[in-house]
Amino acid sequence: MKNRIVLIVILFTVFCVSGCKKFLDRKPLTATLDDLHQGGLETQALGLYGTIRNSSSSPYVGDGFESIPWIGMNGFRSDDQEIVSDPGAAQWHTIYDLFGGGQYAKDDWASGVYWDRHYILIGNCNTALQIADSLQLTDDASLTNIGEIKFFRALSYWDLVRNYGQIPKVDFRIYNPTDAQIPKSPEDTIYALIESDLQFAADHLPLTWGPQYNGRLTSGAAKTLLAKEQIWRKQWATALSLCNDVINSGVYKLHVPYWDIWKLDQELGEESIFEVQASEKPGDGGFYWSWFGTTQGVRGADADGWNLGWGWNTPTKNLVDAYEPNDPREGATILFSGHPDSYPGPGNTITAANGGYGKDLPPYTNALYWNKKVYVSQADRDAAGDPNGGAFINHRILRYADVILMAAECANETGDGATAAARLEEIRARARNGDNTILPYIAFQNQVQMRAAIKHERRIEFGMEFERFYDLVRWGDATSALGGLGYQPKNRYFPLPTTAISANPKLVQNPDYN
């Protein structure tokens, strides 16, 4: 089909914010493919970047990826993160932090939203891929678009299969609701689809984009997510090869110092591989905001200046106690109630927790700790027109430190202890930042010793970043680490949501929850 015949609507998201660091939505343009010199699926591909973010241009889909349902499913179930700041959310603490006493709730609202929104995004991807097939789009630009679309489909299935196990494999366009009423597929079938999608993305996405597209998906993002999936399946050699590809590309660096990663000016920085982008400016209509920051912000009072969010993801004492003496990553990860916001140095002191809660009783919370990785200054909040939240904070999904530590783990598991130690030292040296009195070098002694060192380093490096629960599960450590909280082996998976089974009579509940 001739390009000039095909008229398309392009959602050309190169709207420059803060020095063109983020590309976001703007009004559609109508043109021919010949005029635009870009892929025939630009509308569909670029629209997905906004779909996974909460925004008025993509109603409610993003709350399965950025808001409380995602944070609860991916975070609260670890021994590092919990929901205790809002006494009104006691049932969340029971369901997620305490694993429902070993029996997750089948009709939990958050699980239902998580499931629905992920399948909505998968449906959007399938529709776009059907359009590509029907138009026989095989030019390089369109293949790039297809790579982006397949990445998002793989990301959705990656979330679902880790949390539910066997799920329906919907890899076709839905025309009628009954089209999606199919049985669950084996996990291996879902992983095969994820691998196929990510390999296509790795083959067809560019290594980098121009500055006007900073943050757009790259081959490095596809290879990084594929490496994570391969490690999950203990395919150590394949995962190591993928990590080495990303490392040897020369595109990414570990940013120094560690604490600076979480500043606004390091969003989409040299360590970033993939982020969900958000932005809020006075008068922008709220098209680009996300719940990710606000849901986790310090929960306090207007009167004391600490009404910054809902506090629905707080560090545990278990995590606080896990840091080595004077590890700078502790102060970069955790805000301490009753201490300065730049703890242990000077700064604005956070209201001390006193166990009270109520509109007339500050500090409204009993939380001792807060997630500093989503904390932004008053000046940043004022500039965004969001004085009591963090709707403009990017969600960092993949960063280069993960590639380094995955490479260390793979090297250790394949018998290369020297490389494992060298990769581990890269992470510790960055955290040390020239202070050789802390975080001593860890030499390889044996595989078991190095494995334990890498496990510890992952916990500390990715504190509050939603890696811990899945790491414990894949290591086989979840029962020993979480058993005291109520975890049982069946709790690696959630029951299928009641709403999903009601909508699809061919679904069968996970066997541990019948």
Describe the overall structure.
- The protein has helices at residues 33-36, 42-51, 68-76, 90-97, 109-135, 140-164, 187-204, 219-232, 236-248, 292-296, 317-320, 328-333, 378-384, 400-413, 417-432, 447-461, 468-475, 478-482, 498-503, and strands at 7-10, 15-17, 22-24, 29-32, 81-82, 272-276, 314-315, 334-336, 369-371, 395-399.
- The chain is built from 19 helices and ten strands.
- The chain is globular, with a radius of gyration of 23 Å.
- It has a domain at 63-205 and 493-513: Serine Threonine Protein Phosphatase 5, Tetratricopeptide repeat.
- The longest helix is centred in the N-terminal third of the chain and has 27 residues, at 109-135.
- A two-stranded antiparallel ribbon has the order 1-4. Strands 2-3 form a two-stranded antiparallel sheet. A two-stranded antiparallel sheet has the order 5-7.
- With 514 residues, the protein is mainly alpha-helical.
- Mean pLDDT is 87; it is low at 1-21, 25-37 and 356-363.
Please outline the helices and strands.
Elements (H helix, E strand, L loop, with lengths): L6 E4 L4 E3 L4 E3 L4 E4 H4 L5 H10 L16 H9 L4 E2 L7 H8 L11 H27 L4 H25 L22 H18 L14 H14 L3 H13 L23 E5 L15 H5 L17 E2 L1 H4 L7 H6 E3 L32 E3 L6 H7 L10 E5 H14 L3 H16 L14 H15 L6 H8 L2 H5 L15 H6 L11
Antiparallel strand pairs: 1-4, 2-3, 5-7, 6-10, 8-9
Helix pairs in contact: 2-5, 2-6, 3-5, 5-6, 6-7, 7-8, 8-9, 8-14, 9-14, 14-15, 14-16, 15-16
